[in-house]
Amino acid sequence: MQASLNVLGKALLLGAMGLLAACGPDEANDEPDGAGGSDSGPTAEQSCLGFCQQANANDCDPRAVDCVAFCQDQLGIAGAECKDLAGALFACMRPFAASCPNEPPPACERLDDEVESCMELHGCSGTVCSGGGGPESKMCGCQSTCEGKLYETQCETPAGGATTCACLIDGAEVGTCEGESAELCDVKHSCCQEFFDIP
Q: Torsions phi, psi of 119, nearest 5?
């Protein structure tokens, strides 16, 4: 199954347990179930926070994930049109977080397919991100197909230095920019968007 988002589909789980370990400690004090939500159930943000916090509680990664940043990034990737479906997928996957799975459980595959189809219809799909780094630097990169073109970011933050991203379209570098952090490298939300101009 093709990954839909960094943490939706196979990449969703890999992102939650792996890529987002590059982020700082979880500072979220949000109540994922109910607080601030509507009578119809938890919001997409609450569902995402619930999944992320459960993964942290089960030590799925050596370092705690910053769940607020994680959810802003992932729901931003989904976009406004697909955000609710992404939230439903997070809610579906939350009960399975204790097993730290590497791909969506069978019970959630239908939702994963729906998120992927929604993203293909409304813009970008096939987003794959990776990241990591040691004490000397942090790195992350993402690539995504949007409206028939392959967009890619390659961001790095040297120890004590500023984050710099290389921005590529169909394999050709179109510019470099200074980003906010080495963890914010999605093609639509990194500093590369000034070159990409993805709607």
A: -70, -35
At residue 184, what is the residue type?
Answer: L
- pTM for the full model? 0.56
- Give the residue extent of every domain in the chain: 1-123, 133-199
HEC letters along 45-98: HHHHHHHHHHHHHCCCCCCCCCHHHHHHHHHHHHCCCCHHHHHHHHHHHHHHHH
| 53-79 pLDDT tens trace | 988 888 887 667 788 888 988 888 787
* pLDDT tens column, 89-143: 999 999 998 888 777 889 999 999 998 888 777 767 778 888 766 556 688 899 9
Report whether 153 contacts 186 (CB < 8 A): yes
Q: How far apart are the first and last CA of the chain?
A: 26
Instruction: Find out whether 156 and 139 touch, Cβ atoms under 8 Å.
Output: yes
Residue (of 101, 103, 86) closest to 47 by Cα position: 86
Nearest-angstrom CA–CA distance, 31 and 97? 17
Pick the closest to residue 125 from 150, 95, 88 (CA basis).
150
